[in-house]
């Protein structure tokens, strides 16, 4: 990985507006989409000159080629800058509205602050990966990141064609290519387009999101930054596979699908899955939501597994996700839900989000909660998925996720961990060999094959389970359905009724005041306190001590846990780009099989009413009803 680089440093003493994305203007002259979903052809005509204008040209895919710059060295410009407020990095990187990132030096400051935060050995002359979900502003941002990386002495950038790489694929590529880390350009499940959201995060050498020790340093450096180091090189054509060299620095544009597909073929038995998906009596729909998994859906589900091309809905990634909200839940994936709940609906449906790390699983007229999904995958993994043929090493869930997975771990006699929300908390456990399968109630499911949650992995896991259960079924015989698998699981383990209420873009002051009120309330609470018909076991603000490195994460969610195991939990989410999202989680365990078919909202109504009463949510936020109910 280490490469020699020759650099010269030129200091510019006047402030520059080089990094103002709003100076990039272009008209779309032509656009075409190849049936090969990894190939996008476009032509841009520049109408104003600026250092970071994307000027890709239209051409059909060609064999990889190498272009060597005339100069064997790089001129590095040092651009003066000053701190910009509001760049504190959360669990999922930095997310803001696109117009914020397009402000002068906004993105550049953060990227330079990142390099200022890393030890030299973590990037100097090394290899970094770059990719994203295809949303608006990714093209301009990719050029900024490449030039600053070169300016800071990175040896090589490996980038997905057209800047496309799903979040799971970035993690997979980092691990396969033994890269030092990688940049992910995404705001995940949040909307895209000029008026909406953009985001950036950094993943480390094992493919996991950067730990808080690094994100805290990045924020600290954004408060004191004074210069940006940028290589004086032209924009790189990201539409063509191949290598471009500038002195000792190079950029390799790669197929975004190939490394990830190879990994999936090593994890799953594709011949087994194909035996189900290609059956004439099995119907399957995957909704890519015009997001990044559109680039992966056809190569995997159609070309490799034999699904019909018509099985892929919204399969073309678009910068604005087709004016949609790429969040795979019952509200924002309503079209898919209507198809599965329609008359004579398909046997299986699934969706993934903006950057491909979340998933929703549906059967015919049947929704699988994410909490149940990870538990069912864990319970069936050893039989149905070759990667787990020796059995999982351990299981883990985020604290708000229901206790379904706990019961599987107990029955299989496996180590079990309850961690704060945020996928990085699973990474340490995986690296230490303690964890194989994990999940979050926020539609995130995954395993230690990479260090991110993985939407397509979850879909393939479910198809593997269904294929395994139906492998001996002859044509014309009734197939084991999604609902059959779930109900059999409930009969074995009991059902954890679970629901989440999301109140999006609340006024931050009111939301924070509500959480503080709840913290004051739990400080005065004690075991035995009565809340209606519920008796309190304990109430706390969840804290976690990492069993691997001893690090402590506090204030991770206010919990009220009752004597029958029921729980209500309150959290503020950090995954949005504006305001605050209040999340309420409600859970109740039901061992009685005769009650398993109850609607969750009916079963949980007494707890839901208690949660709204205890929190005084309406008083603090003014909200009459949630934005999303899961």
UniProtKB/TrEMBL annotation:
Q: Which regions span the lipid bilayer?
A: none
Family matches, as InterPro entries? A-D-PHexomutase_a/b/a-I, A-D-PHexomutase_a/b/a-I/II/III, A-D-PHexomutase_a/b/a-II, A-D-PHexomutase_a/b/a-III, A-D-PHexomutase_C_sf, A-D-PHexomutase_CS, Alpha-D-phosphohexomutase_SF, PGM
What compartments host this protein?
A: Plastid, Chloroplast
- Superkingdom, taxonomy of origin: Eukaryota
Q: Which GO terms describe its biological process?
A: glucose metabolic process
Pfam families found in the cross-reference section: PGM1_C_vert_fung, PGM_PMM_I, PGM_PMM_II, PGM_PMM_III
- Domain called Alpha-D-phosphohexomutase alpha/beta/alpha: residue spans: 87-226, 259-361, 371-474
Q: Which protein is depicted?
A: phosphoglucomutase (alpha-D-glucose-1,6-bisphosphate-dependent)
Give the required cofactors. Answer: Mg(2+)
Gene3D superfamilies documented for this protein: Alpha-D-Glucose-1,6-Bisphosphate, subunit A, domain 3, Alpha-D-phosphohexomutase, C-terminal domain
What's its EC? 5.4.2.2
Q: Which family does it belong to?
A: Belongs to the phosphohexose mutase family.
> From the record, what ranges are coiled-coil?
none
Q: Which GO terms describe its molecular function?
A: magnesium ion binding; phosphoglucomutase activity
Q: Which PROSITE patterns match?
A: PGM_PMM (PS00710)
UniProt keywords, alphabetically: Carbohydrate metabolism, Chloroplast, Glucose metabolism, Isomerase, Magnesium, Metal-binding, Phosphoprotein, Plastid, Transit peptide
| Source organism | Anisodus acutangulus
Task: Name the CDD domains on file.
Answer: PGM1
Group of enzyme by EC: isomerase
